Fold this sequence. Notes:
- The chain is 5% helix and 59% strand.
- By secondary structure, it is mostly beta strands.
Amino acid sequence: MVRILTLFFLLNLVSISTSQELSDEEIQANFNAYFDNSRVGIVYPSVSLTKNVGENTSVTGRYLVDVISAASMKSHFEVDGVTSATSKDEGGGDNTPDEVRHEMGIGVTQILGSSTFSLNGLYSTEHDYTSKTLALSYAIPFAKKNSTIQVGLVRSWDKVFPQVRSWKRDKDVTTFSGSFSQILSKRLIAQFDVWYSKNKGMLSDSYQVVEILEGNSAKFLEPKHPNERSRKAFGIRTNYKLTDISSVQIGYRYYWDDWKVKSNTINVFYQRYLSNEKIILGLGVRSYFQSKAEFFSGNYTGNEEFLAVDSKLSSQFSLEYQVKMILDGAYFSENSFLYNEKIQYNAKFNFYHRKTDIADWHSNYKNLYAYIISFGLRYKI
C-alpha cells in the first residue's frame, strides 16, 4: 500500500505544480498509521524540508520510514516445494515478518519565465524490494494566467527479490500525465486530466498463494499475471467557492486497462474556515466502482496460464470518508507553549470500506474495513 502512496505523492507533484511562485520555505513532519480488519498494520512517519536557493529555485528533501505487519506475511504454505514466509537460507520461520522500508527523496523546482519545471527523485529499500523513481513536470500558464497546461512523466525501476525465492525480477513503470486547468469565473475553477501508464515485468505479489483443488487435496502455487499492463484514465475536477469562507470540490475519474479492469471514481470534498479563519475543517467522501480482471477467479482447478488472487483485481465497490482539520498556530494566542504564527497543525482521519465479490485469498473476508490516521505540522522557516 505504501508504494501506492509514494506513486500518488509523485503524481501529485506533477499535477499541483501550477503556481508560478516558489513554495514557502518550510519543514513538514507527519505521523501516519493504517490499520484494517485483515490484521494489516502500517506506521509511516515522514519529514520534509523545502528551501529556496535563489529567487527562482527551490530544493526539497524528504525522508519516510514505514513498518508493515500482516498476518499473510507470517503464514506458511508449501508453494512449489518452498515454504512461504520462510527464509530460504536459514529455514524455520521468517526472520523478518515485519517489513521496514526506508525512502529518501530530493526535488528541485525551477521557475523559467512564466512556466514552472520540477524534477523529483525517490529511492526506497526494504529487505526484499528496491525502487528508484524519477518524476518530471512542466506547467505553463496562458490567457492572462486564467489557463494552465501541465505535462508530467514518472519513471520507476523496481527490483523484486522475495525472501522465500532464489530469483530476482524487475518491474518497470512509465507514467505520462497531462492536465488543462481553466478559471471559469470568480467562483469556479476546473481541471481536466488524462493519464497513461505502461507496466512491465513482475506484476504479481510473490507472497500471495493460489490454492488449486485436486479432488480431496489441495496444492499451492505462486500467482501468475501477464508481464505487461497498459493503464489509462481521464477525469475532471472542479473547485467552487460557495461563500467567502467555504468551498466544495467535486471530481470524477474513469479508468480502464488491457486486463479488462474498468472503474469509476466520484469524490466530493467540502471545506470551510472556522474561528476567524484560524481553523480549516474539511469533510469528504469518495466512492469507487470496479470490474474484475478478465483472468481473475475465485476458484482455479488447474495450473492455468494466469493465476490471480489479488483482491485489487476483483470486482468491487468501496466508500471512503475523510475528516480533515488544519489549525493555525496563531489560534493558541492564550497558550504560550502552542502559540506560533509560523506553525500550522494538521490532522486527518479516513475510514475506508471495500466490498469485493470474491473473498480475500488469506483473510477469507469480502469486506475490508480500514482506518487511516495522520497528524503533523508545517513550520515556515
